[in-house]
Design a protein that fits this description.
2 copies of one chain form a homodimer.
Chain A lengths: L7 H9 L15 E3 L5 E11 L10 H19 L2 E11 L4 H17 L4 E8 L5 E11 L14 E5 L4 H9 L7 H12 L5 H7 L5 E4 L4 H12 L2 E5 L14 H10 L6 E5 L4 H11 L3 E8 L3 E5 L21
Parallel strand pairs in A: 3-4, 8-11
Antiparallel strand pairs in A: 2-5, 3-5, 6-9, 6-10, 7-9, 8-10
Helix pairs in contact in A: 2-3, 2-6, 4-5, 6-9
């Protein structure tokens, strides 16, 4: 299809080129150049988002710009890393300048706020829908990264923020729940403007042992930590920080949203019990709820206990990009 | 569409997980962890490849795996950087295990050969065709990177290898030239198995001033250097290293392939004339032709001079991802 105007280089400079911070070479060379601090390791993560799969075709482009970066920053947060820079590759079926401007605005606003400058990119055409790929780079002091394989038997399991909000928003947006405008208004922000827990992650580096962001659902993401750390977990249902948007819903939906709801971008982290006071103080300082929801144990798998100490029959395993139907 | 088996995590571990080199944390955590050397800057580049746009749907997957990484490594080469690690995001319309295995084989073979381990990735479904996005990271000693904005008036302009081979292969593959099996056999490697000039790039760091890889055609890529360095260039047509696959072709096709043919992945670099002997010695040591093809001058734009010193009327500006028709 013929393109109305511009060209790859015009597009990059018009919407995505920003002056690089001092000491960095940004968009416009074969590579960007960065200078990580001494004594730090470089943390790197990449995510691809496909129209129709990871976002609706009619999503507001400004929100999409935010979310595209947010989901990647969340991976840095879960590693305890400070953002250093990001790259963006974008494929568009056609050029819509208003769309691009709004997308870039949303991306750059979060980029500025999180001090994660866009330093490189690739703009292309040829995909039937929009495809986005962001790579983020961050730095974390050597040996302080919050790795998945570092949970230890006896650790507390913590969750930041609240759970279930994004899942309910997704159900409402997809028509899998009856329309409920008030609930949608309360829930949509979780889905549309997720906040990567960067400050929490950075403060936890050197304090907690392990962390993961809850992008695929608590049980599935916790399961990744347990598999990597070769241990088991007990989770207390009543201790899980259910978001108020879950109030009044059927118990089966509540359970599913709490345990298997994805797109949450809160952190689930493991720390020694002697860190409890420090972590609670940290939560208060950041104005962010931190809830102690279970313990790491010997063995394998997750047991979720109800108020009576009875284990729930667990069948929820969260979101799997290939086993669902598109 | 329902997926036959596996799931995101199975796919990643089955085809793409390799033990990370010592001191690195690879696939399987929120982020990969790398340790760039002290005194080095980090060079980062990202490229997205779309089925039907950047490669044919029926391309041999092993060749695609090679090329996907090669085009990114070429950006590191053009910066004078040593590869450190790469990430791969891949979206597939469906799971074809034989295809994935061959793709991964091609990718890993070049990854091993160039010492650029795959440390992170994202596998998803949902795109109608295959979409690939690679980000490479490399390291280059501080102040030695071959930047586009560092060409100086009086510099020699050099080109590595030969020019035009990939362009002829592309014309034959797309049926834009009459079938010519012998020429196709001689040309296809340029298109299918491009060799990133990593060693040349590394040795040129600290020797040459500026460099770019010829991915969009000599004139267009040279133009980027001139724009960034605010200078002009004179290029001698007879000095350009025409590949033998151009022999016997019409002059208009030869010219177009030489000056505007993309996908070449040779380096075009600029160095002070006192470096001539050093650069020629380097070429001999690497077994790679290096040709001195022009000079950097005051002013703007490129003049291409024929054997009589007459300037060619230049209309070739290479490949632009948005102005062509898909």
């Amino acid at each position: 299809m013929p393109m109305p105007s511009g060209g790859e280089f015009d597009l990059i400079s018009r919407y995505f080129d920003r002056p690089a911070p001092s000491g960095m070479l940004g968009v416009g060379d074969d590579c960007a150049l960065l200078s990580p601090a001494q004594g730090c390791e470089l943390a790197v993560s990449t995510d691809m988002l496909i129209e129709g799969r990871h976002f609706f075709p009619d999503i507001a482009p400004r929100l999409l710009g935010h979310k595209t970066l947010a989901v990647n920053l969340s991976d840095l947060a879960a590693m305890g890393a400070r953002p250093l820079a990001c790259t963006l590759a974008i494929s568009l079926p056609s050029i819509n300048e208003a769309w691009l401007q709004a997308f870039a605005d949303g991306f750059h606003a979060l980029s500025r706020e999180s001090r994660c400058p866009l330093v490189g990119g690739d703009t292309t055409g040829g995909s039937p829908g929009v495809v986005l790929c962001v790579t983020v780079m961050g730095e974390v002091r050597r040996h302080q990264a919050l790795r998945r394989d570092a949970a230890r038997v006896g650790d507390d399991i913590w969750v930041s923020g609240t759970l279930g909000g994004a899942d309910i928003a997704l159900r409402l947006a997809q028509g899998r729940m009856p329309p409920d405008p008030a609930r949608w208004q309360a829930a949509r922000t979780f889905l549309e403007l997720p906040v990567p827990r960067l400050k929490l992650g950075r403060y936890l580096a050197g304090v907690a042992h392990a962390a993961i962001d809850i992008s695929d659902g608590l049980l599935q993401d916790l399961g990744h930590v347990l598999d990597a750390s070769q241990c088991a977990a007990e989770v207390w249902l009543d201790a899980l920080p259910a978001d108020p948007v879950l109030d009044g819903l059927d118990e089966s939906i509540r359970l599913d949203a709490l345990l298997a709801g994805g797109d949450a971008y809160e952190l689930c982290f493991m720390a020694h019990p002697r860190r409890r006071e420090q972590i609670e103080t940290l939560g208060r300082q950041l104005g962010l709820a931190v809830s102690r929801v279970g313990t790491i144990q010997r063995g394998t798998g997750v047991r979720v206990l109800d108020a009576d100490g009875q284990a729930l029959p667990i069948t929820h395993r969260g979101f799997d990009h290939f086993s669902e139907t598109a």
